[in-house]
Amino acid sequence: MSKDTEAKSEEIMESKVLWYPDSKRNTQMDRFRTQVNRDFGVNLANYNDLYQWSVDSYPEFWAQVWRFCGITCSKMYEEVVDVSKRISDVPEWFKGSRLNYAENLLKHKDQDKVALYAATEAKEEIVKVTFGELRRDVALFAAAMRKMGIKIGDRGVGYLPNGIHAVEAMLAAASIGAIWSSTSPDFGVNGVLDRFSQIQPKLIFSVAAVVYNGKQHDHMEKLQNVVKGLPDLKKVVVIPYVRSRQDTDLSKIPNSVFLDDFLATGKEGDQDPQLEFEQLPFSHPLFIMYSSGTTGAPKCMVHSAGVSVCAHTLKTLYRISLYVQTGWMMWNWLVSSLAIGASVVLYDGSPLVPSANVLWDLVDRLGITIFGTGAKWLAVLEERNLKPGELMSDIEFLHKPVRCSCLEDFDQLYINIFNIPSGGTDIISCFMGQNMAVPVYRGEIQARNLGMAVESWNCEGKPVWGESGELVCLKPIPCQPTHFWNDENGSKYHKAYFSTFPGLWAHGDYCKINPKTGGVVMLGRSLCVPQYNSDGEERVILFLKMGPNKSFSQELVGKIRSAIRVALSARHVPALILETKDIPYTISGKKVEVAVKQVIAGKDVTQRGAFSNPDSLDLYKNLPELQNF
After folding, report:
1. Per-residue pLDDT band at 511 (split at 50, 70, 90)
2. Which is it for strands 505-513 and 520-522: parallel, antiparallel or unpaired?
3. Quick one: CATH architecture of 73-89+98-308?
4. CB count, 10 Å around CB of 475?
5. What is the pLDDT of residues 79-126, one digit of tens each?
6. Which end of the chain has less Cβ packing within 10 Å, N or C?
7. What are the sequence ranges of the domains in the chain?
8. CATH topology of 73-89+98-308 equal to that of 528-626?
9. Where does the Acetyl-coenzyme A synthetase N-terminal domain lie (predicted)?
């Protein structure tokens, strides 16, 4: 980068410092850096040095992660990775090793320590499960699964809320070597079948009903229709959950059984079964995750036990909670925290009932030190003038999926450190995120994560700094999918990530990397879409949803145009800026630009099961302002 370019970029991306790291604090990152310096004879003075080493020497870095995290295995690897292969070759990681994901999550020595706290909107009581109890319960789940014939490679799925049973069923499947996949109860029948019908599970766990927003919602009719669409199912396990067994009728669902009766088949007399862990290759399939499915059938991304290695190394005293549902990759990320002895807090229900403080009350009640949520809920708090900084005392990290428009609440939300990660289901991890070793700058994700050779590239295939570009990953990572399900020749996989820049991972998001701070600003999640005419010409349309008591006006449009022109260029100014009453979101809370692009082009969006507000798509049909282009 030239000095002129750097100076220009730094001027554009001047950022306010919100927090500086404590130079006296000995963090896990510091300990890891010290270990690297000792073992490799290098002198890495700070995080930037460590990051550069981690991407330049990525096989050595990931080997060090294995050692530092204390991965449990029955057979050590022969090779970390073949360095002659590119990320597009999807190289095998830790070849020759044998391990089990569930074993690594359940290895904590203090069996009396609480592994899971489960809270729900439906009950005030918080259920606690120790590591010892969790091992016992997982053993019983696994024994019952084996008894019904579940084996290595079979698919087990959950149509479940964020609770203890979802964790236990997933870990049991992993202990056997079965492949786990899940969706949450707020998915409709079509949304579930769009996903599960592609992988044809043998076993499904579900609940009879859920409570949300103060109301009990029956789940049995949806489950009945889901089961009809999954002909390979051998067993349907129903958990009464918020409804009694006596009030639940299973007669209309073939091969169905209550959870207690299912688990009873795993017992041999009065003895609890022993927990056995199948020893499997590092690349053995563990999870099947899904793309949003808003413009077609969801892509089925297969992730291996590599996500265990990618689990964050945190202090074992942490209690961690993310407000998530089981169909979001952050749920898998959350549960993986068990690997380092963290206590995981699960919450099921509305974050606004009985009050908007319910999650903050849970933070104080349990002494949660790491808390995560989505931007949408924080926006509601902002609208209600609730300031989290006045409500929280013990939090050390606040995880929040990135949203560019959150600058106004950024200052008041960080506690000791405000943490915005960014990654995705595609890698079941984060390309960039939290870092106790570098400052927090307003509006920026702190740093690119170790081992993630991430850059921002322009359309000419060149890296840019301080300018908008596509997020690109240059080197292999163990958390990329091993393959897509039902994609035998890999063509869908290749098209999804490697067709934009041959041989390199193009993530589909846009970002700016600040050359001065090293921080990252994500740009790809706003509702700004292209429109094309019959000649192939393109124009950009920006839709605005106004906040409470805010009015849309041409004066506002003028201010936005001016701000974009000054901050970026005249070429970046949208052709039209229009008001909309609602913006479509997926069930996991992501804005959906591609579907809006289809609607304004006159195409139907038939895959509506993945939307939390599918009717919002109709707002973009036949808009007069978009005609005659």
Report:
1. confident
2. antiparallel
3. 3-Layer(aba) Sandwich (3.40)
4. 18
5. 999 999 999 999 999 999 999 999 999 999 899 999 999 999 988 899
6. N
7. 73-89+98-308, 528-626
8. no
9. 47-104
Q: Is the dihedral of CA 142, 148, 149, 153 positive or negative?
A: negative
Condensed to tens digits (0 to 9), the pLDDT of residues 290-326 reads 987 766 688 999 999 866 555 444 444 456 766 777 8
List 285's β-bridge partners, or say none: 304
Q: How far apart are CA 321 and CA 117, in angstroms?
A: 9
Q: Which amino acid is at 533?
A: N
Sign of the four-CA dihedral 388, 389, 393, 394: positive
Q: Are 219 and 211 within 8 A, CB to CB?
A: no
What order do you get walking across the sheet with 538-544 strand by strand? 528-532, 538-544, 576-579
Residue 361, both tokens:
């009350």
| Sequence-ordered list of residues with C-beta below 8 angstroms from that of 418, at least 6 positions apart, any chain | 18, 19, 398, 400, 410, 440
Residue whose tokens read 């934009």: 500
> CB neighbours of 409 closer than 8 A, spacing ≥ 6?
378, 379, 381, 382
Q: Which CATH number fits domain 528-626: 3.30.870.10, 3.30.930.10, 3.30.300.30, 3.40.50.920?
A: 3.30.300.30
- Mapping DSSP to helix (H, G, I), strand (E, B) and coil, where does residue 234 land? coil
Q: 401, exposed or middle or buried, with CB in 10 Å at 0-12, 13-18, 19+?
A: buried
DSSP secondary-structure letter at 142?
H
Helix (H, G, I), strand (E, B) or coil at 157: strand
What is the rounded CA–CA span in Å between residue 344 and residue 370?
Answer: 10
- Percent above pLDDT 70 for the chain: 86
Give me the DSSP letters along 440-504.
Answer: EETTSB-EEPTT--EEEE-TTS-B-SSS-EEEEE-S--TTS-SEETT-TTSHHHHHHHTSSSTTS
